[in-house]
Specification:
Blueprint: E1 13-17, E2 21-22, E3 26-30, E4 36-40, E5 47-54, E6 61-71, H1 99-118, E7 131-133, E8 150-155, E9 161-164, E10 171-173, H2 182-185, E11 197-204, E12 211-217, E13 233-237, E14 249-253, E15 257-262, E16 265-270, H3 281-293, E17 300-304, H4 310-319, E18 324-329, H5 332-341, E19 348-352, H6 355-361, E20 369-372, H7 381-388, E21 394-399, H8 402-414, E22 417-426, E23 435-442
Parallel strand pairs: 4-6, 7-22, 12-13, 17-18, 17-20, 18-19, 20-21
Antiparallel strand pairs: 1-5, 2-3, 3-4, 5-6, 8-9, 8-11, 9-10, 11-12, 13-14, 15-16, 21-23, 22-23
């Protein structure tokens, strides 16, 4: 007998009171029947008309957009970006909230994840509850920081560049992205015809004039002659690229890398490899990590998920000639970059492979310091158990996802580590993303 198909509720509208913020750029509300709604474009305390965008009768929750605000929060502003709003560009989550309110909302999300997944209050995590803006980002309501040094444009059927709509493959054509860094905006990508291309990634480096575009053609399409408003290197991508590796990216014209600057050093980052997107992020995070670890001359350290070697370089600088650093990174191109970037340090070694596979093979049984900056899914129980057994006096955990961070902090507690301090940084303004740095230390025996 065929199961009865559940009725889709897409397009249904509910008048609701908006409750607390939730992880993912939305707030929680309930219909009169008690069904949970995840509502975008709303703020806590508002009364809105919410239109369902995903979900069916009997589902655990529905997704919805606030399409009419009946009673507005004092934190609400008119979205500065003309492409923000229900059904429009999905790149930003909080254009409709004052900048200070955005940081408070992010702080509430971090606190809620810590409580729910790690059983920690902010006080127990050594955190004052604030999310700090990056230097230069504290702007009046209605002004938007232009911070995004890497922008992934999608291309519609007419060859127009734009950004994806929320949870959709549909493209919102745009004339200008307000959060794009000036070096990206100056390329003029939105003004060109990109027929035959599936996507264009634009990269502008921090601390150098390097700019790069990575073109992904549709099957069978040829690359266009790229003439942009500023000098730029051109790469061709055959398959998805990014943090986990950049295979299938080939040089067409110019340098196959950009030069980034952080902590007084220059780093080569090739073919769209991972680098922090906010121009102040690399320095902000290195400072927070080094202040938390307080490296001493001659110590040994691990830099896990090390990318182009940012933290390994900072550690090597501070540990001196008798110190040693091992970096582990899965991406082949990133490993090549890290080895190039850190070639001046005799006692830095970079290994390629997944952390959970490579670390046990190294034979390392003890280490003084550990830095880990895992991808969004976190490090996971097995890796955390291994790290907890190495006896590090301090561990710095850099996290782009507060839920993954909280889960891993719970595993570290099982392994005998407690959070000494936690700091949160708003390195993705207008979006729901937030970066955290947790410093851990062993629990004192008998405490």
């Amino acid at each position: 007998m065929q199961a009865e198909e559940k009725k889709s509720l897409v397009g249904e509208e509910y008048e609701v009171e908006i409750g607390p913020v939730a992880h993912g750029g939305h707030c929680i509300a309930r219909t009169s029947t008690g069904q949970v709604l995840f509502v975008r474009h709303a703020l806590p305390g508002e009364r809105v008309v919410a239109r369902v965008t995903e979900g069916e009768e009997g589902a655990r929750f529905l997704r919805a957009d606030a399409v009419e605000v009946l009673s507005a929060s004092k934190d609400r502003i008119e979205a500065p970006c003309p492409y923000a709003g229900p059904g429009r560009c999905g790149g930003c989550d909080w254009q409709h909230a004052k900048p200070g309110a955005q940081r408070r909302l992010k702080g509430e999300v971090v606190a809620e994840q810590l409580r729910r997944l790690a059983g920690l209050t902010p006080e127990e995590a050594g955190w004052d509850g604030t999310v700090m803006p990056a230097e230069g980002d504290k702007l009046p309501a209605g002004e938007v920081p232009a911070w995004r040094t890497r922008v992934q444009y999608a291309v519609d059927a007419d060859g127009r560049a734009g950004l994806r709509r929320h949870r959709s493959h549909e493209v919102e054509p745009i004339d200008h992205c307000m959060i794009a860094a000036p070096g990206v905006t100056e390329l003029g990508i939105e003004k060109r015809d990109w027929t035959g291309m599936a996507s264009i990634e634009a990269i502008t480096a921090t601390g150098s004039q390097d700019r790069q575009v990575i073109l992904t053609p549709r099957p069978g399409a040829r690359l266009p002659l790229v003439e942009l408003d500023r000098p730029v290197s051109v790469m061709r991508a055959e398959e998805p690229h990014g943090r986990e590796g950049t295979g299938g990216v080939h040089r067409v014209h110019g340098r196959p890398f950009v030069r980034e600057r952080a902590d007084g050093r220059t780093y080569r980052v090739g073919s769209g490899g991972f680098w922090q997107v906010h121009p102040k992020a690399a320095d902000t995070l290195v400072t927070a990590v080094m202040q938390g670890l307080l490296p001493r001359k001659g110590e040994t350290a691990l830099d896990l998920y090390c990318g182009a070697g940012l933290f390994a370089g900072a550690l090597a600088d501070r540990l001196g000639d008798k110190g040693a650093v091992l970096g582990i990174e899965s991406g082949k191109r990133a490993v090549e970059d890290a080895r190039h970037n850190l070639a001046a340090f005799d006692r830095v070694r970079i290994e390629q492979g997944k952390v959970e596979s490579v670390l046990p093979r190294t034979g390392i049984t003890e280490v003084d310091l550990i830095v880990l900056d895992p991808p969004r899914a976190g490090a996971g129980r097995k890796t955390v158990e291994h790290l907890s057994s190495l006896g590090a006096r301090r561990i710095a955990y850099v996290a782009c996802d507060p839920a993954a961070l909280a889960r891993d902090l719970a595993y570290f507690r099982e392994g005998g580590y407690r959070v000494r301090t936690l700091r949160a940084f708003d390195l993705f303004p207008m979006t729901h993303h937030v970066e955290c740095v947790a410093i851990l230390e062993p629990v004192a025996k008998g405490s």
